Amino acid sequence: MSAIDVDLAVNGFITGLFYALMAIGLSLIFGILKIVNFAHGEFYMVGAYAYTLVALAFGVPVWVALPIAFLVGALVGWATERTLMRPLYAGYTSWGLMRDEYAVIVTFGLSLFLINLVDKVIGPYAYRGPPLVETSRVVLGPVLISGHRLLAAGIAIAVILVTAALIKWSFWGQQIRAVSQNRLGASLAGIDTAKASAIVFMLSGGLAAFAGALLSPVINASPDVGIFPAVKSYIIVVLGGMGSVPGAIVASLLLGVIESFGAVYLSYQYRDAFGLILLMLFLLFRPQGLFGEKGREV
Amino acid sequence: MTLLSVNGVTKRYGGLTAVDDVSFDIMASELVGLIGPNGSGKTTLLNILSGLATADAGEILLDDTPCHGLTPEQLAHRGVMRMFQLTRVFRRMNVIDNLLVAGRALGLDHGEALTRAHALISELRLDAVAALDAGQLSGGQMKLLEFGVCFMVPPRIALLDEPFAAVHPTMKEIMGAFIRARHAKGQTFILVSHDMPVVVELCPRAICMNAGAVVIDAPTREVLNDARVIEAYLGGHAA
Amino acid sequence: MTQASPAPAAGAQLTTTKTTVEFRAALVAMAIVALIPLGVSNPYWLGVLIVSMYFAILAGGWNLLAGYAGQFSLAPATFAMIGAYTTGLLGTYYNVPPLLGIAAAIVVSGLVGLVLGRAVLRLVGPYLALTTLSFAEIMRLVASNTIDITRGDLGLGVAGLPIGRLAWYYLFLAVLVVLLILFYLLLRSKAGLFLQAIRDDEVAARRAGVDVVFWKTAAFTLSAAASGLAGALYAHFAELVTPELGLIAQTGLILSMAVIGGMGTLAGPLVAAFLVYVLSEWLRDVGGYQLVVFAALVVIFARFFREGLWGLAKAAVRRWRQA
Questions:
Q1: Which of A87, A261, B155, C77 could form a disulfide with B81 if both were Cys (CB 3.0 to 4.6 A apart)?
Q2: Residue A212 lies in a domain
Q3: Which residue of B has its CA nearest to C197?
Q4: Residues of chain C contacting A273 with CB distance shorter than 8 Å
Q5: To the nearest whole angstrom, how far is the Cα of B38 from the nearest Cα of chain C?
Q6: A273 to chain C: nearest residue by CA?
Q7: Is residue A186 part of a domain?
């Protein structure tokens, strides 16, 4: 393996880590509510803006701005669940019978709303978030990487591991897994399913916002900055198996590496198409992804 | 005249044999009860007969024509009507439209279908709720509606999957009367049920399944007194 | 046993009746649109109305697929783009006259719709949405990147028609009305029953004997063909085709019109297309907040007024009748 290949692999892996921050939340939402959140990219956007504006406008140090971004994302996620997700639990008279369709429309609309609101209220210009460290070049063997990116990758790994551990071993993590497997059964067993849903949305929003914050020095905050990461998340969530956190993590890393090599060896122009093509192929031939359960079809 | 002939039908899911070499013949105008404990393969067998699952081995003949591997729609056109254990109706369409779907799909024109729909609504005592959407009905009324859907065009054979389960006694009465009346006119039924009094009352013949295989196929009284059947239900404590 | 009673049960409104009522309302709306040029001659606003008609066709086609058949495709704008490029490319490289190009666009979009429809037969809900979304994005990327053929984001020049704006207005309106009539006839027939049955419970529909494969594919094909027609017409009107026609944001606009108007109704999406697009243009003049307002409307309607404007109108009429 040549030096370029090592560099591509490492960079692809690191990109995959950031993808994972986005995708875990989306996967959890699907697991617990069986819907795709089309406003997921806007959680990312909100985090990028929160981090950037809080640091630039209020001079807050970056290490404080990061958790603030997480909290803002969590708040937006929580608000989304509380205000918009009720009809999913309703019966005949509401959208209860067309849950999937309701989720698509309302989250799509929310996405449009948030993008345009930010565009009007804050402005269409991109804001560059402050990097975590100013070191622009670190050399690790054949790999050249910026200090910020390296540090951000390390933080991302830590956050991902903590999240995975929480899901697996914490009290609410287990409640969430129970609701994902069988909502009715879980509620009969006394689990507060509404609260579990709220927690999942908060976590999802927080993680996506965190990703937006970490990447804002490179991918500057702008109203539609979240669209691109969102599309990646959809791809990952399907590839990894909807609802599977380990699946999302593995698929994120895979996608990052595939895109990294594909852009160089196959086509730079169509580098975004690889993921989309993979997505379509999986949906058509293996909708349960790499790790998901079957039962996705009519 | 043999209407339905099931020969050596087997279905496996991974390591589990859900239906194990099942064979029986149903004559025209028979009302046969299909009983057996939970997990004995009755619903899987019904799924196979109605096209929702494919048998791994064996053959099925309807009116002496093979119908292995046909889709549910194709079987519906051949006269196989299946009623689900968990009621399936078109919830956002009203009661009459629910019935019209079946009528039109199976070849009736609008006028004919409408006439029959009204007749069925009366027979099933759904007049009071005919204006509502199916999703607004009570559970029992939905079952009656599904019943009606299955009989818009009288099928060659009606497969009823536990129609009396968790149903109000009044509805049970209506359904029972309906079945009896149709049977008297020559309708063929396979009735899956756990409700023994109903099976005794309606079905001259019963087939009992256990662990995927047919344990006994005989007149109902004989079946219910059979030691193997009692053992199957009580779980192996035959005296 | 009891007598059969052939008169409709009290209060029961068959889907055929509902569809006819909606059709009549839609015709009234179309009549109003036909009369507007008597009072409005400003070419800018006529152009806005023409674009509204473009969206009305797209919203109506999507409503057939999603509102009636329950298939939530996120690719309606893509088929408009495919139709537009079909006529544009045929005209540019083979000198195909516009009318033939438009006819070809209908066929090509319809075929692509048929193939996609067959491919996604087994998918539901979010899986269907994501597959069609990927398809849409891939198509747009292809249109953008095959610069040698399509001129990418620069846009492909398309021949116009030797007619004035007013004639374009009535041409679009005529196409819209013809499609409205076609959809009405379709939905009033047994097809309307079958599509809605498929939407509500596909397994139950199959049990009842409905050929689900055929009808789902038919819905996809018709919806795609109608979108392709709209796209082709627009191409000759604007005399330009760009990949922007297939942006997801455009699909968002189309979905919103259908939702705000009332999904699963004939008149709702058509009327909403006009209201939403005209409103958004008017708000653009006033302060530029149109997209924010209109996205908020989508969320509010989806959350609180499931049946859209049509549902609100029905409720208002009911209350007025009881008063």
A1: B155
A2: yes
A3: B90
A4: 138, 141
A5: 23
A6: C138
A7: yes
Does residue A295 surpass a pLDDT of 80? Answer: no
Q: Quick check: A295 contacting B, CB < 8 Å?
A: no
DSSP secondary structure letters along C195-241: HHHHHH-HHHHHHTT--HHHHHHHHHHHHHHHHHHHHHHHHHHHTEE
The per-residue pLDDT for range A138-181, each reduced to its tens digit, is 887 778 888 888 899 999 999 999 999 999 899 988 888 888 88
Residues in chain C, total: 323
In 3D space, the residue among C11, C65, C15 whose CA is nearest the CA of residue B110 turns out to be C15
The shortest CB-CB distance from C122 to any of A84, A100, A298 is to A298
Diameter over CA atoms, chain B: 60
Chains that touch B (3 or more CB pairs under 8 A): A, C
Residue B150, pLDDT score: 95
- C200 neighbors B90 (Cβ within 8 angstroms): yes
Please tell me which chains touch A, using 3 or more CB pairs under 8 Å as the contact test: B, C
Contact C126 A287 (CB under 8 A): no
Q: Cβ-count burial of C244 within 10 angstroms (0-12 exposed, 13-18 middle, 19+ buried)?
A: middle
Tens-digit pLDDT profile for residues A176-193 = 888 888 877 887 788 888
Are residues B101 and C194, on separate chains, in Cβ contact within 8 Å? Answer: yes
Q: What is the CA radius of gyration of chain B?
A: 18
**Residues in B touching A92 (Cβ below 8 Å):** 91, 133, 135-136
Q: Which two tokens stand for residue C220?
A: 């996809």
This prediction has a pTM of: 0.89
d(CA B211, CA B16) in angstroms, rounded, equals 10
Q: What is the nearest CA distance from B135 to chain A, expressed in angstroms?
A: 6
A1 CB within 8 Å of a chain C CB? no
Question: ipTM of the predicted structure?
Answer: 0.91
Say whether pLDDT at C312 is over 50: yes
pLDDT exceeds cutoff 70 at A240:
yes
Say whether A120 and C288 touch across the interface (CB within 8 A). Answer: yes
Task: Give the total residue count for chain B.
Answer: 239
Share of chain C above pLDDT 90, in %: 71
Interface test with C, best of B88, B127, B141 (most C CBs within 10 A): B88
What count of Cα atoms within 13 Å lies in the side-chain half-sphere of residue C130?
Answer: 35
Is A107 among the domain residues? yes
Does the pLDDT value for residue C5 go beyond 50?
no
| C200–B90 C-beta distance less than 8 A | yes
The answer to whether C5 contacts B89, with C-beta atoms less than 8 Å apart, is: no
- Alpha carbon of C313: minimum distance to chain A alpha carbons (Å): 18
User: Which one of B73, B82, B136, B143 would you mutate to disrupt binding with C, by most C Cβ within 10 Å of its Cβ?
Assistant: B73
Torsion over CA: B131, B135, B137, B140 (sign): positive
Q: What distance in Å separates residue C30's CA from the closest CA in chain B?
A: 28
* Full domain range(s) for residue A153: 27-238
Whether the per-residue pLDDT at C37 is higher than 50: the answer is yes
Record: contact B106-C208, CB cut-off 8 A: yes
Burial B156-169, CB ≥16 within 10 A → b, else e: bbbbbbbbbeebee
> According to the per-residue pLDDT averaged within each range, which of A10-14, C5-9, C104-108 is highest?
C104-108
Here the tokens at position A289 are: 């992804």
DSSP E strand boundaries for chain B: 2-13, 16-27, 31-35, 57-62, 65-66, 80-83, 157-161, 188-192, 205-210, 213-219
- Locus of tokens 């049509």: C310
pLDDT digits (tens, 9 = 90+) for C216-252: 999 999 999 999 999 999 999 999 999 999 988 899 8
Do the domain assignments include residue A225? Answer: yes
Q: Where do the domains of chain B lie, and which CATH numbers do they carry?
A: 2-85+157-234 (3.40.50.300)
**In chain A, which residue's Cα lies nearest the Cα of B136?**
A92
Least confident piece of the model among A182-191, B103-112, C261-270: A182-191
